[in-house]
Amino acid sequence: MKLQIPEKKKLVFEMTLPMRWGDMDAMGHINNTLYFRYMEIVRIEWFRHAGCMVDPTGEGPVIVNAFCNFYRQLEYPGDVRVKKYVSDPGRTTFETWTTMARDDAPDVICAAGGATAIWVDFPKQKAIDLPDWVRTLVQVSD
After folding, report:
1. pTM of model > 0.90
2. Cα maximum dimension of the chain
C-alpha cells in the first residue's frame, strides 16, 4: 500500500538531522525504523515550537496512525533534511506530512510519510474538538 502526500499542504517546520553510523543496517543504508524516528523528532520539535506540547493533565495531540513510503536509500555519512507539512483539519483531527531528503540533495525526496493527529482530553481519554488556535495553525490557505 502506498499513500500519497497531497499537493495542497502547508510547510510548518523543517530541520536537519545527522545520520549516524549506528543508524545503518546490515545492507549499509539507514534502517527503515529510523525514518519513523526522524519523523517523530521533527513532529515533536514542531509541536514544541508551536506551543502544542502534550500535557498529561490537560489536552493535546496523539498520533493515531503513521506511514512511510521509501523511494531512495539514505546512506551514511550525511545529514537528512526533514520537512513537516500539515493539512485537512477535521473536527478533532489534522494530518501531518513529512518529506526526507539528503541535505546535500534537498530536491531529491528519499522518503515521504504522514500521520494523523487527534486532539485528546487526556484525563477523560476522549477526543475533543481542535482548539481554534490549532485549527488556524494547520489550516491551508485557499
Report:
1. yes
2. 47
- The answer to whether 113 and 39 have CB atoms below 8 angstroms apart is yes
Buried b (16+ CB within 10 A) or exposed e, 3-27: eebeeebeebbbbebebeeebbeee
Each of the 142 residues of the chain gets a pLDDT tens digit; together they read 667 888 899 999 999 999 999 999 888 899 999 999 999 999 999 999 998 888 899 999 999 999 999 999 999 999 999 999 999 899 999 999 999 999 999 999 999 999 999 999 999 999 999 999 999 999 998 6
Q: Which helix (H) or strand (E) holds 73?
A: none
Q: Which fold has domain 10-138?
A: Thiol Ester Dehydrase; Chain A (3.10.129)
Residue 131 DSSP label: P
Task: Give the span between the Cα atoms of 2 and 56, in whole angstroms.
Answer: 33
d(CA 31, CA 76): 11
Give the Cα-Cα-Cα angle 125, 63, 45 (nearest 5 degrees).
Answer: 115
Which one, of 64, 66, 54, lies nearest residue 97 by Cα? 66
